[in-house]
Design brief:
This is Integral membrane protein. It comes from Rhizoclosmatium globosum. Keywords: Membrane, Transmembrane, Transmembrane helix. The chain is mainly α. It has one domain. It contains nine helices and no strands. The longest helix has about 35 residues, at about 160-195. The two termini are about 15 Å apart.
Length: about 210
């Protein structure tokens, strides 16, 4: 479910906003962005009786979007533009806060939902190398999302509106895609190191 979470929670909102913001006020456009998130929450709750890892902070961000855009965004386009970063910032904070959880976000995603994958993940979690690697990936995701949110927020005030639409769309989609590609090759690197370390018994990330 992790990839679906990313697609719906992170990529869908900027796409919807780029289309809807040209037709309706900003706060309504942000409200439309919440529709796929709410559908994802309902579906995941129906299946697992839990809230999605990505959808939950995104909903918090969208709630802030609608409120701030409705109260202040109608008279200030910069503030209306600023609101677009709230969900991405909330997800970035979630990545970093997960370092304080019993298991970080990457480890939770890698755990899966089958008895076999859960047992395998529990065994890996006993090794410091696995815990360090998953924590490092959370840090990269968190810093990347917060950095992207900062760039878009600044452009929201300084860039022309026509240019800002493309900027927020490119950054909103490009950030998770680029970090996802980095993570793929980083995991390959870890697997290669694990294969070369003949005397080491500590497994690296195997997702």
């Amino acid at each position: 479910m992790g990839r679906i979470d990313i697609l719906i929670s992170i990529i869908a909102p900027p796409v919807i906003y780029s289309i809807a913001s040209n037709q309706v006020p900003s706060w309504q456009a942000y409200l439309y962005c919440s529709i796929p998130i709410f559908l994802l929450l309902l579906w995941e709750f129906y299946q697992t009786h839990t809230l999605g890892l990505f959808a939950t902070p995104t909903i918090i961000g969208i709630t802030a979007q609608v409120v701030v855009a409705y109260v202040w965004g109608s008279s200030n386009q910069g503030v209306a533009n600023l609101c677009i970063v709230f969900p991405q910032a909330c997800v970035g904070i979630m990545w970093l806060l997960s370092l304080t959880w019993k298991r970080n976000a990457i480890a939770l995603l890698a755990r899966g939902d089958t008895p076999e994958s859960i047992a395998e993940s529990d065994a890996r979690w006993q090794y410091p190398g696995y815990r360090w690697a998953t924590a490092f990936m959370c840090i990269v995701w968190g810093i990347s999302f917060l950095s992207a949110a900062t760039v878009v927020a600044i452009c929201g005030f300084l860039a022309p509106q026509s240019a800002f639409t493309g900027i927020q769309l490119g950054v909103g989609i490009g950030t998770p895609v680029l970090v996802g590609v980095w993570q793929y090759f980083y995991i390959l690197h870890l697997k290669k190191r694990a294969a070369q370390a003949a005397t080491s018994q500590e497994p690296f990330v195997q997702s």
